[in-house]
Write a structure and sequence with these properties.
Layout: H1 8-15, H2 39-47, E1 58-61, E2 71-80, E3 89-95, E4 101-106, H3 124-129, E5 138-141, E6 148-151, H4 154-170, E7 177-181, H5 189-197, E8 202-204, H6 211-221, E9 226-228, E10 235-239, H7 249-261, E11 265-269, H8 275-278, E12 282-284, H9 291-304, H10 310-316, H11 319-326, H12 334-344, H13 350-357, H14 361-374, E13 378-382, H15 394-406, E14 416-418, H16 458-463, E15 469-475, H17 479-482, H18 486-493, E16 499-506, E17 518-521, E18 530-532, E19 539-545, H19 548-555, H20 574-585, H21 609-617, H22 623-629, H23 634-641, E20 643-648, H24 661-664, E21 668-669, E22 675-678, E23 681-687, E24 690-692, H25 707-711, E25 738-742, H26 759-764, E26 770-772, H27 774-780, E27 787-791, E28 795-803, E29 811-813, E30 821-822, E31 835-841, E32 846-853, E33 896-901, E34 912-915, H28 916-927, H29 962-968
Helix pairs in contact: 4-20, 5-20, 6-15, 9-13, 9-14, 9-15, 11-12, 13-14
Bound molecules: iron/sulfur cluster (SF4).
Length: 969
């Protein structure tokens, strides 16, 4: 396309001065429409981003006063975005005169995002300037949840919380302390803190997010996340709500497009025509929950037609173990293995896949051929989406990885690697030992294979009297709104016999913070420290999220001691908060806690935030040498550039890495399995006569056959299979109007529960109607905008219909990032996005919510707040969902069986009703499906499975259920 010539009229108007002349140099100086430029020109522009040597004194014209040319001088300070996990690079443009952040742009020196961001990155400026943000520590007045707050000092908050933690630890009530996190980050930081306190107190949101897919990958090869090398792939298959449900959204999106531009084909399984599906060569609108059936049908075709990579399958799967365990009558030969597999999957014909999924049999065959042809250059991803939606959702990731194994695309260029191969892990000072306690409120016996903490069940456990949360932190975490069954959370949060002291660490008001005792304002992306490293491509990088005003102050010769001294109000950052809190829990060091938080450079003194990061960066491979060349310390290098590329494209096939002579010395090889062990630990495997590292599984290979599943009471799932989900058509009564509701997608400009203080994002996306195909709408007599009553197992919500061909017939969907609320008594917050609601309880488990008013313009320091034109804040759907914990992975199965009907007279848009007695009954129904620990030898969990914040594994210790162990022996 290149340079766009001005039209005759434009030319004339420019010449006589009616409009400014932008074409003097045959180029539009300020043309915002990038379509007018070639790729080369765009690349040149990125190269023309201000060079780092000018970042302390960068002059630009102020666009707001255009066409006047007014110069502005900025300091540019790099940081990273916090609005999804990807941690793309940002650069803050700080007005030199006022020391205010004026805008954010991408950071071209960040190897993951390479200068690009999605809409949510630059919108960080909205979050910083939001007139409703919390600027000072607050403590509740009156009854919890009543909405009254008073300002306190950081010292008040820290001393109160520290004293309570100290008492709990001294009284050996370690399991009454918990930190519950929504948006993580803090690479290993909280392990350092919580294990330093000796508590098993970490709880995460992962079981409502990604545990299903993690389990499916882990059971194959001991790694729980994929890292697809999209840019080098020949064929890409995504099992996706949209671009991987927001995971690595921009870094993956740009590489998928790069792969496509080099000829790769893209297929997307999604019942909804998502943004990704619309950019795909193949849209596969599979019926929700049927994905594994389709993937196994593809596997069967690849097997039958000999399209598999024989060398890889023969060397890198535990096929001998499979034959010995399940086909002991057959000779252990590779041919017998292939024949047995074909027999095992013979029911998964393309026609069966079509019957289950609705995707045409010939399309299934075509894609199977393309995957087979792509071979080692087959890249794929499943994160949330199907893995997070269905009973047995984990089996989807397992079936997907089956295709990666068959094609030999595990860890190859253009294939799919384990994410740990593309991720840096920091080394911290004074590391604590693993805790000696196991918290059954997070990892209960019923879920020995549950991949993360059973966080969605915490309120039910407390309701049943399984424990007490004396000191509870919610951190960028909003279960009342984000989780299923929010009213049960509200009941428990309101009860001081369940939650003793609740501290909400949050940059913005949320529905959970309303039920806290302390609300402590935490920094946004550009107001805090953090380390990031994610598997965005076939390379490894580390990035530094830093508080930009603090860094600007340092550069200006005015360093501050604590970050809140540079941030707006008294907004702090978590790292310093936790160090300070830890020090106050153990002020004289007698509890053995303080020593972990002492300076590695100044013995006996409190570590500073700069020392913490300097210690880590000194240990990043290659960074000391690069920093030295610029006469910088490692920390100064990261403060200057914001990111460092550790390696680019060398981390393929790491399972084939040879063991060193030193490692092999004194080791033993198991004659049955070829596994190499030393000192009681498995260290590798013999493959083709060579000692190599392999994978971190019991066989050190990809486990087509899982003895672990057999040992832990699930023999029917010893090999990859398809599990009919809770919303399979067989489980729905269409005559009663039962449908499946897909609630797992979000509009791509939204941030989980933190869009409410980003005005640009809310302006773009502010409603969440029910997506419905025209055929379904006609059947029900609905048209766009009509009210619809969505009855779930525990209540209902009333929404509006959006009739669209972008939805698979027979399935309805609703975005889950809209429907934010506040009550009249709550502090004003997120007014760009919140409805005002009335909530009533009958005191017997019945809860009603009604919308009092939608979103309205308001007066504030931001003139745009008077210009709000949208009124409809959507409907809070998750609160009407019951908990559905998958009995194996522990993942919440998000899809809902709903009964669709027209609302009765008097029922209004936004009305919600829930019976929490019913939700507790549904909880019990799902709990009844579990097969509890112990496993072999009294273990609570397979020893080879990773566990967040791994406790002490010493035999007979907390990793074992000792009573049962005695009974077993
Ligand atoms: S993809 Fe995520 S990290 Fe990157 S700019 Fe968007 S929200 Fe921020």
């Amino acid at each position: 396309m290149g340079y766009k010539k001005p039209s005759f009229l434009e030319n004339m108007a420019e010449k006589i001065g009616i409009i400014p002349n932008l074409h003097k140099d045959k180029r539009q100086e300020f043309d915002g429409d990038m379509r007018h430029f070639t790729d080369e020109e765009v690349a040149e522009m990125y190269e023309n981003f201000p060079p780092p040597e000018k970042w302390d004194n960068w002059v630009e014209y102020d666009p707001k006063v255009w066409p006047k040319k007014e110069r502005k001088t900025y300091q540019i300070v790099p940081t990273t975005c916090f609005n999804c996990e990807s941690a793309c690079g940002l650069t803050a443009f700080i007005d030199k005169e006022t020391q205010e952040v004026k805008k954010f742009e991408g950071n071209p020196h960040h190897p993951g995002s390479r200068g690009r961001n999605c809409a949510k990155g630059p919108a960080t400026i909205n979050q910083i300037n939001d007139p409703d943000r919390i600027l000072f520590p607050l403590k509740r007045k009156g009854k919890r949840g009543d909405g009254e707050w008073e300002r306190v000092t950081w010292d008040d908050a820290l001393d109160t919380i520290a004293a309570r933690i100290r008492k709990a630890i001294q009284e050996e009530r370690h399991n009454e302390i918990a930190y519950h996190v929504g948006r993580p980050g803090h690479e290993k930081f909280m392990n350092w803190i919580l294990q330093g306190w000796g508590v098993d107190g970490h709880n995460s949101h992962t079981n409502i997010c990604s545990s299903g897919a993690r389990f499916g990958y882990n059971i194959w090869y001991g790694y729980d996340r994929p890292s697809p090398d999209h840019a080098n792939a020949k064929f890409i298959l995504l099992v996706s709500a949209h671009l991987e449900s927001g995971h690595y959204f921009n870094p993956h999106a740009q590489r998928i497009i790069e792969g496509k531009m080099k000829g790769a084909k893209l297929a997307t399984m999604d019942p909804r025509l998502s943004n990704t599906a619309s950019m795909s060569d193949y849209w596969l609108p599979t019926y929700p929950g049927s994905e594994a059936a389709v993937l196994l049908a593809m596997a069967l075709i690849i097997l039958q037609e000999g399209l598999y990579n024989r060398e890889y399958v023969e060397n890198w799967t535990n096929w001998e173990e499979y034959l010995k365990a399940l086909h002991s009558d057959k000779a252990v030969t590779f041919e017998n293995y292939i024949a047995a597999m074909i027999n095992e999957y013979k029911e998964y014909t393309p026609e069966f896949a079509e019957k289950e999924s609705g995707v045409k049999a010939e399309t299934v065959v075509e894609i199977a051929h393309l995957i087979g042809e792509a071979g080692e250059r087959f890249a794929s991803h499943n994160w949330r989406a199907a893995g997070a939606s269905n009973l047995g959702g984990w089996a989807v990731a397992r079936a997907l990885h089956f295709l990666t194994v068959l094609t030999g695309a595990v860890g190859t260029k253009g294939g799919t690697s384990p994410n740990s191969w593309n991720k840096f892990s920091p080394t911290q000072p004074n590391p604590p030992k693993p805790q000696k306690v196991w918290n059954e409120l997070h990892f209960p016996k019923e879920y020995p294979l549950g991949f993360f903490e059973m966080s969605q069940l915490l309120p039910h456990f407390l309701k049943e009297g399984r424990g007490f949360m004396d000191v509870y932190f919610s951190r960028v975490f909003n279960p009342v709104w984000t989780y299923p069954d929010g009213f049960t959370w509200m009941e428990m949060f309101s009860d001081e016999t369940k939650f003793g002291l609740h501290t909400a660490l949050t940059p913005t008001w949320n529905e959970t913070a309303f039920y806290a005792d302390f609300v402590l304002p935490m920094g946004l992306a550009s107001e805090r420290h953090d380390i990031n490293s994610y598997a965005t491509h076939g390379g490894t990088w580390v990035a530094f999220r830093q508080p930009v005003l603090r860094e600007a102050a340092r550069r200006n010769g005015k360093p501050v001691e604590f970050t809140y001294q540079a941030n707006p109000g008294e907004v702090w950052e978590e790292d310093e908060f936790w160090i300070e809190l830890s020090w106050r829990i153990d002020p004289d060091g007698s509890m053995g806690i303080r020593k972990h938080f002492e300076s590695p450079y100044r013995p006996g003194e409190k570590i500073t935030i700069d020392e913490y990061y300097q210690y880590i960066f000194e240990r990043v491979p290659g960074l000391p040498e690069v920093a030295k060349k610029e006469d910088l310390t490692e920390l100064q290098y990261m403060q200057k550039y914001g990111a460092y590329e550790i390696e680019d494209g060398e981390s393929y096939k790491l399972n084939e890495k040879s063991l060193s002579e030193e490692q092999v010395k004194g080791s033993k090889v198991d004659p049955g399995t070829n596994v190499i062990s030393k000192g009681g630990k498995d260290i590798g495997v013999m493959v083709n006569g060579k000692p190599v590292v392999g994978f971190p599984t019991p066989s050190r290979k990809n486990e087509f056959y899982s003895q672990t599943m057999v040992d832990w009471k699930w023999p029917e799932y010893a090999t990859p299979t398809y599990i009919k989900s809770h919303i399979h058509n067989d489980n729905l009564d269409k005559s009663k109007g039962e449908y499946v509701l897909v609630p797992t997608f979000r509009l791509p400009t939204l941030i989980h529960s933190r869009s409410g203080n980003a005005k640009w994002l809310v302006e773009i996306s502010n409603r969440n109607p029910i997506w419905m195909h025209p055929d379904d709408a006609a059947k029900w007599g609905f048209k766009t905008g009509d009210l619809v009553k969505m009855n779930t197992d525990i209540g209902y919500f009333i929404d509006k219909v959006w009739v669209t061909q972008g939805m698979k017939p027979g399935v309805v969907a609703c975005s889950h990032h809209i429907g934010r609320w506040r009550r009249p008594q709550d502090k004003t917050g997120n007014r760009w996005a919140t409805n005002t609601v009335d909530i009533q309880s009958d005191g017997k488990g019945g809860w009603k919510m009604n919308t009092l008013s939608g979103i309205k313009p308001y007066e504030s320091s931001d003139k745009d707040s008077k210009r709000i034109f949208w009124k409809d804040g959507g409907v809070h759907q998750n609160i009407t969902h019951a908990v559905h914990p998958d009995p194996i992975s522990g993942m919440h199965c998000w899809h809902q069986r709903v009964r669709i009907e027209k609302p009765a007279v008097g029922e209004k848009y936004g009305d919600i009703y829930v019976d929490t007695n019913k939700s507790h009954e549904v909880y019990k129904e799902w709990m009844a499906m579990t097969r509890p620990a112990p496993g072999p030898n009294g273990e609570r969990r397979p020893l080879w499975f990773k566990r967040a914040f791994t406790p002490d594994k010493t035999e007979g210790g907390c990793y074992y259920i000792n009573d049962e162990k005695k009974e077993d022996s």
